[in-house]
Amino acid sequence: MSVDTATVAKIAALARIKVSEAELEAMVPELNGILAWVEQLGEVDVSGVEPMTAVIENKLRLREDTIDADPLTGGGRRDAVLANAPARQDGFFGVPKVIE
Amino acid sequence: MTDLTDLGVAAIRDGVAKGDFTAVEVAEAFNANVAAAAALNAFIVTTPEKAIEAAQATDARRAAGQPLGKMGGVPIGMKDLFATHGVQTTAASHILEGFTPEYESTVSQNLWNAGAGMLGKLNLDQFAMGSSNETSYFGNVISPWRRNDGGNAALAPGGSSGGSSTAVAARLAPAATGTDTGGSIRQPAAFTGISGIKPTYGRCSRWGIVAFASSLDQAGPMARDVRDCAIMLEAMAGFDPKDATSLDLPVPQWEAGLSGDLSGRRVGVPAEYRMDGMDADVAASWDQGIAWLKDAGAEIVEISLPHTKYALPAYYIIAPAEASSNLARYDGVRYGLRELPAKESGGGAGLQDMYAATRAAGFGAEVKRRIMIGTYVLSAGFYDAYYTQAQKVRTLIAQDFNSAFSACDVILAPTAPTAAFGLGEKSDDPLAMYLNDVFAVPASLAGLPAMSVPAGLNREGLPLGLQIIGKAFDEQGVLNAGLAIEQRARFSARPERWW
After folding, report:
1. Nearest-neighbour CA in chain A from B309: distance (Å)
2. Does the distance separating the beta carbons of A31 and B359 come in below 8 Å?
3. Which CATH architecture has domain A5-41?
4. Phi and psi (nearest 5°) for B36?
5. Residue in A with minimal Cα distance to B340
6. Which ipTM did the prediction report?
7. Any idea which architecture B4-259+483-489 has in CATH?
8. What are A21-70's pLDDT values in tens digits?
9. pTM of this prediction exceeds 0.90
10. Which parts of chain A are beta strand (E)?
């Protein structure tokens, strides 16, 4: 499978990356080169093979049912959470207006 | 008096404990080397005051007769992928420039708790995506090594942990943290003549490490020798309830368990790693490694890892897929860069325009490339053909290792297909760059512990590394085989100081 300019533009839109026309043109052969190379995976007979979901077997744990069990990841840290935000207002993240 | 910056982790820890020198003297010596090595561009931020602070604490504990910790008095470099409280953490990207975490990563906290101090945050490939440290927003790291041809060609320190490898090789730090997603500890270690181990997936907590590909990312130490790696890995590893994939197992005493006697051990040599057109010096160093391990008492067995050639293409689907998901968080809202373009129709830009403009300005070309690939292979209609297929191939690669380990205890292979290459030699060709990790990626896909140790110099006078891959949880077996090579290679070459 190979991609054309329109497909690359669509991928860029899905990935939320603004791409100029010139960048698009440059990306098409690059991505096609990589995709052509990964295509060889199609040769592998994978009938009856399960896709890997965990590389080392591990049990999924539940955290303790305690409020703020871990002080770093518990609640009450609003200011720390907002500290690196490019824009913040009244204890919230600030973003451009979304509703006209 | 010995130059304190010639000492490694064990020698510093023991010397401080004995009172041969103080931790502050050690920190000052390394701080001075760091300050004099700006030409290498190994650090994004230096924190000499942090190194001194930790050293003072160690000296005070010693004066009070308290235990100093596994890394007591040892200053280290911290790859700038680990969140450090109050110290800028960028993943070498523009999008995270200025990001100052309100928390400390588990691994770095473990190291500080063990008595280590921080010399600074080390440069790397942007979001750990690269094999030459040429994708950093903060510029290339230059390897301290040069070819013996009299030229001054700037060489790649490997990647993504290129700041770490350079810092350790150039004696700017006795050890440094690295992370390894598809070879990012082992390949730079090999390029710069140092040791580095990626432990079993889950040994080191990923909490607070900027995520690249979560099913592959593992932290590990990079240091001058195997013992130093064992000590530092003990300090870094351990169960962390904040990481869902953290292994709930006690941390073995790897240092105490070190032994270069491999009697009764079987070392597998994978036929598929001997590729057509293999670099002659790399092939010779591999043969030498086989002879060394035989000399150490091991039995050498031929093994087969039939799906080896598919590891790299599978990796370049799985890692970008996970990256495209992980990097979705950089949107200009919660941290880092925000670009707010003016709307063509006039007025302020909308939220979607902000996302797209922020990510366009904040990510470098290689990061964008991988996000695009990842987005494509996960998109409707292509998911099964690419992503599911790659995950199935990944199962087969893990099964290859499982069957091989019925016939051997560890596997010996080269770390990288060549010695260090020049900066700029491969940066225009993504595929040529990816091929650098051909020997490193299979162990990553299978989550296995693997290490690189220096084996010698090639004809250009550049270091070559040998890789040992072990069974899951058998870091000890890997370290011991590494030690057996180290004892026979007696690698003592170091880059001549030009910076």
Report:
1. 9
2. no
3. Orthogonal Bundle (1.10)
4. -90, 0
5. A96
6. 0.95
7. Alpha-Beta Complex (3.90)
8. 999 999 999 999 999 999 999 999 999 999 999 999 888 888 888 888 78
9. yes
10. 88-89, 92-93
